[in-house]
């Protein structure tokens, strides 16, 4: 059964049941598959073909020689593994990434231990021993989008993964969303109620930075998963670097300051 509450209904009853929401502005923060972005820009996510598996294990189930109080990365051709402590060392987060042999669709589902083991057969025995420990895995197929020239249209704009979904290789997805929020807040506060002007200033300040982070994340994925001569070059460059050189290389990324978020942007 269907009841039409269109024009004849409104004419008879005087429209007392209609609810209309009028907002001063719209900020789309609705993720990789953003409905707001679809309405404003209309592009599609780029499925990377890289799959991420994540599991959490109690410290009692973590191999003793891998109970390290720091993030540890094991990199190999077309794959890498990361583990680090959670909850004050009571648990460990295990994250494995590989290039899928299948045609993947973006999304999250229950994972398979057999699939994980099939991609990491033959790796070094030290990290391999932890792959049997989880009782369950979560499977993510990752996606990003190419940067665009604008996020804002009138009094509507985008923030976070709606604006610039990126791969996980620099661990910057949530960080860039927070930077977005700070920059947008500063732009709105300085605009005296002019949302269109605020949104233009916000995107002028942060689109170039997020585009650089996004492309750098893609490149870091290639570096992590290098093979052959590329792997040898990568390893020789990293082994020879001092801590000061690593810090200097990260200064553009980790040196961002909230108080300077609109610096140089009119």
From TrEMBL:
<dbReference type="Pfam" id="PF01494">
    <property type="entry name" value="FAD_binding_3"/>
</dbReference>
<feature type="domain" description="FAD-binding">
    <location>
        <begin position="22"/>
        <end position="191"/>
    </location>
</feature>
<protein>
    <submittedName>
        <fullName>3-hydroxybenzoate 6-hydroxylase</fullName>
        <ecNumber>1.14.13.24</ecNumber>
    </submittedName>
</protein>
<keyword id="KW-0560">Oxidoreductase</keyword>
<keyword id="KW-0274">FAD</keyword>
<dbReference type="InterPro" id="IPR050493">
    <property type="entry name" value="FAD-dep_Monooxygenase_BioMet"/>
</dbReference>
<dbReference type="GO" id="GO:0018669">
    <property type="term" value="F:3-hydroxybenzoate 6-monooxygenase activity"/>
</dbReference>
<keyword id="KW-0503">Monooxygenase</keyword>
<dbReference type="GO" id="GO:0071949">
    <property type="term" value="F:FAD binding"/>
</dbReference>
<dbReference type="InterPro" id="IPR002938">
    <property type="entry name" value="FAD-bd"/>
</dbReference>
<keyword id="KW-0285">Flavoprotein</keyword>
<dbReference type="InterPro" id="IPR036188">
    <property type="entry name" value="FAD/NAD-bd_sf"/>
</dbReference>
């Amino acid at each position: 059964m269907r009841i039409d509450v269109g024009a004849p209904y409104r004419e008879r009853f005087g429209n007392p049941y209609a609810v209309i929401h009028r907002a001063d502005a719209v900020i789309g923060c609705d993720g990789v598959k953003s409905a707001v972005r679809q309405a404003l820009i209309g592009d599609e996510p780029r499925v990377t073909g890289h799959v991420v598996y994540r599991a959490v294990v109690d410290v009692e189930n973590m191999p003793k020689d891998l109970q390290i109080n720091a993030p540890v990365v094991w990199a190999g051709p077309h794959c890498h593994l990361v583990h680090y402590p959670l909850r004050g060392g009571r648990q460990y987060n295990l994250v494995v990434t590989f290039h899928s042999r299948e045609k993947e669709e973006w999304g999250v589902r229950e994972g398979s231990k057999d699939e994980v083991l099939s991609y990491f057969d033959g790796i070094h025995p030290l990290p391999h021993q932890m792959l049997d420990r989880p009782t369950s895995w979560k499977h993510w197929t990752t996606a990003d989008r190419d940067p665009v020239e604008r996020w804002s249209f009138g009094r509507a704009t985008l923030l976070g993964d709606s604006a610039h979904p990126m791969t996980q290789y620099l661990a910057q997805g949530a960080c860039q969303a927070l930077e977005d929020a700070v920059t947008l807040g500063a732009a709105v506060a300085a605009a005296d109620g002019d949302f269109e002007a605020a949104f233009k200033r916000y995107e002028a300040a942060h689109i170039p930075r997020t585009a650089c982070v996004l492309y750098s994340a893609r490149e870091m994925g290639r570096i992590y998963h290098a093979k052959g001569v590329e792997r040898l070059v990568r390893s020789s460059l990293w082994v020879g670097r001092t801590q000061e050189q690593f810090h200097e290389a990260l200064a553009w990324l980790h040196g961002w300051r909230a108080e300077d978020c609109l610096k140089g942007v009119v």
